[in-house]
Amino acid sequence: MFIGKSHELSRRAFMRRTSQLAVAGAASSYALGLAGMGEAAAFSSAGGYKALVCVFLYGGNDHANTVIPYDATNYGRYQAIRGTPGGGGIALPRASLAGTVLNPAGGQTLTDDMTLALAPTMPKMAQRFGQGRMAPLLNVGPLIVPLTKAQYDSNSNASYPRPPKLFSHNDQQSTWQSSQPEGSTTGWGGRMGDLAQSGNTNAMFTAINASGNAVFLSGENAVPYQLAGSGAVTMKSLTNRVYGASDLGDTVRQLTTTHHGHVLQADYATTTARSVTYAGFVNDALATANLSTDFGSGNSLASQLNLVARLIAARGSLGVKRQVFLVGMGGFDHHDGLIGSHEALLGKVDSAMDAFYRATVEMGVSEQVTTFTASDFGRTLASNGDGSDHGWGSHHFVMGGAVNGGRFYGRAPEISVEGNDQVGRGRLLPTVSVDEYSATLAKWFGVSGSEMPSIAPNIGRFASPDLGFMKNAV
């Protein structure tokens, strides 16, 4: 059971704040938004700051070349299935893994006495594992109910329901991000944002998307604030001369922010007006958020995480105590050309996530910020030539000072294409559900047990509402 504390996210407080803001009206000033409500401010002071940062790997990350068996027996099985390195296969050379072997604390024993290593381009993540700051979550994926292979093979969706449209990019991205089929209008990050808004004096900055349009941060009431490049999205025509005209900005402002009788026009005008109003404020706050952490260059994921770090540094100016962020990187759909390209992408993930962790240490919030990965799906263990095809379960990483790192969570799958934890060609049948993943993060974030089904709608069907990879979960 989830045990509540005095600073839990409160549905009733959220609903009161929502109704109060509605009465205040869509045209309320920014100053009124900062003034906030006394109850919300009191909650913020009691709970302290916390943030969740989702790193989404678009395209379906090849988990089998991300977390790789290193012991001789299981590596031999992996190589036999994936093909000899350098001989047209897609197995990574065993010798290249020596620097990224993961030795769990306390002598943890995995399936078939397996020893695992990270891809050779992920030495920083391996180091954070050794420091107890990173934990791999093994074989996680969308599930409606726990499934055995026999139940899956029965094709009885009435008795043993499975997520719809498995192995499809857009469907499974939506399912991962929302725990609901494609077409869902809310994601589990946004639903946490719904609850967190009551603890922020300025709800606008509860859910922040630095990656692009996605359902993950959309809530019933929480609307993701979208960023691009190095800061807030601005309308240049409002501030710059266009074709030599200095008065065009006033015309554009009037056209885009004037309220109209039609409800859709009014909503558009309100949204645009808020965007224009807040952009300057956000960029001013970012300008004062100076960090010495080097995020490098030529890495889009690192640039997004750099922006998130600066927003966290400016949290006092933004008036927030709880935030959920989304960043992402594409290019993981490796039906071909896996070797070389995949390691390069993982190297960027390694560098970006490590720089972000170092930034949280610099800011003194490493215990209060948790970063975690997600992706469309895993991929087949079997090779299709020089790549792999769409799968289901996958391995993911959780990193931060509040993570019970240095050990594995979930169950390591057999290295096989015919085992009881796969459904064909080495497609993993998840043994950990996304609902369990999200519920464990949500509990740490401050979500109460009574609210948990709103975040993870299938959680009541699983035995592990807390997987244990977070410290001091409330």
From TrEMBL:
Protein name listed in UniProt: Tat pathway signal protein
Pfam family, one: DUF1501
Chain spans, region Disordered: 155-193
Skewed-composition ranges (Polar residues): 169-185
Species of the source: Aurantiacibacter gangjinensis
Matches recorded under PANTHER family: BLL7424 PROTEIN, DUF1501 DOMAIN-CONTAINING PROTEIN
Domain of life: Bacteria
